[in-house]
Specification:
This protein is of the alpha+beta class and about 130 residues long. About 25% of the residues lie in helices and about 40% in strands. The chain is built from 3 helices and 7 strands.
Amino acid sequence: ALPAAADPARWEAEVTAAERAFARSMAERNFAAFSALLSEQAVFFTTPPTPVRGKAAVAAHWQRFFEGPQAPFSWEPDQVTVLADGTLAHSTGPVRSPGGELIGRFHSTWRQEAPGVWRVVFDRGEA
């Protein structure tokens, strides 16, 4: 069960930390850490626009981004908003090329699946 007492500031900090850990997994080439932050029900929107559904399918689709010594892109949150009941959160921010060029924005929806445990349920990048 989720905490009964609303604590939006704490939840926002938790989601921000989770998003930063998600991005760090790419930078550090740590596929296991990336996968651990995916909800079992994750849906990632890709190009072409057929959603990839489920943790295993998303992980399989993203594994190619973890090949090689350098991450093909990076991201960081610049805005995190949490529902008043702490069940869901939205994070967004810039996506950058390896050289630091702005190439898009990401939008992720996080779900609190246990107290203090946030996992990505929806993700969409925009160029």
